[in-house]
Write a structure and sequence with these properties.
- The longest helix has 18 residues.
- Helices cover about 40% and strands about 25% of the residues.
- It contains 4 helices and 4 strands.
- The N terminus is likely disordered.
- By secondary structure, the protein is α+β, with helices and mostly antiparallel strands.
């Protein structure tokens, strides 16, 4: 599994290098030729996104969707500190974008950009398994989300 993740990372770095017209030798697209025992498996959507990224044909758009809220409090300074601490902690531990929001008088921390309720529900289930201490504060909420068009 680690090998597959490493290969995906190398491939993504290669795309970034192509976009900048400077391909470092260590990230050259033919790097997989020197790894005969590596099998690359990817969803077809990854290829579409990589191709769009290479040619600058993508944009972020805002649409209705869902996020997983993991914190909300109106205890002003304490809430702000807690929200920023959670943001810092979660950035290293979750595979979703972390959003800190101030909606007077509440500070909130939300995760992800989910198009469907079911996707958010599945992520929430995984999240509370990993962070059971946050289960009581974790909810699915409707929100404007950012997606690639």
């Amino acid at each position: 599994m680690k090998q597959k993740i490493l290969i995906l990372f190398v491939m993504l770095m290669s795309v970034t290098a192509w976009a900048e017209d400077s391909i470092p030798m260590a990230l050259h697209p033919n790097i997989l030729d020197s790894m005969p025992n590596v099998e690359v498996i990817q969803d077809s959507a990854v290829g579409v996104l990589l191709n769009a990224a290479m040619h600058g044909k993508y944009e972020w758009v805002e649409m209705d969707g869902y996020r997983v809220q993991i914190y909300s409090s109106n205890q002003q300074q304490a809430a702000k500190t807690k929200a920023l601490d959670l943001e810092s902690e979660m950035k290293d531990k979750v595979n979703q974008t972390v959003y800190v929001l101030y909606m007077p008088p509440f500070w909130k921390v939300r995760l992800g950009d989910f198009r469907t309720y079911d996707d958010a529900k599945e992520y929430k289930k995984q999240f509370v398994q990993q962070f059971p201490e946050l289960m009581g504060d974790t909810y699915i909420v409707r929100d404007k989300i950012q997606v690639l068009k």
